[in-house]
Each structure stands twice: as structure tokens, then as C-alpha cells.
TrEMBL record:
It comes from the Bacteria. The chain crosses the membrane at residues 20-48. This is Small integral membrane protein. InterPro entries: DUF2273 (IPR018730). It holds the Pfam family DUF2273. Keywords: Membrane, Transmembrane, Transmembrane helix. The keyword Transmembrane helix applies.
Amino acid sequence: MLWELLWEHKGKLMGVLAGLFFGIIYLLVGFWDTLVFVVFVGTGYYIGRKLDHKEDLREILDRILPGKFR
């Protein structure tokens, strides 16, 4: 019964857990360190998603930093 309820609201549960996680990081290390952490996680997710879709890493880096990886 509890698992069914949690499964129906898994998006809300994940959102609350993510908010709790980032809230604890903010309280422990501060705003700017947390912001840098979020940027790193977001960048890692973005690159990982592109690699999952079989895109070339050099092509991704060339879009981010044009002319540096030819």
C-alpha cells in the first residue's frame, strides 16, 4: 500500500528528496559552493545525456568552445 502510494507520486518524492539534499548541502557549505556543485552536476548530466544518444564528445565540446578541439 505504501509503495503504491509512493510510486504514484514518484516525481514529487524525487523533488522533495532533491530539495532536501541541496538544502543540506547549502546549510553545510554555503550558497556559492552549492551553486558550483549544481553547475557541475548539470554539466555532467548534459554530457552524459549526449553520450547516451551516441553523439561525439568532440562535437559537443566544439559547440561549447568553438575552434578549440579540431
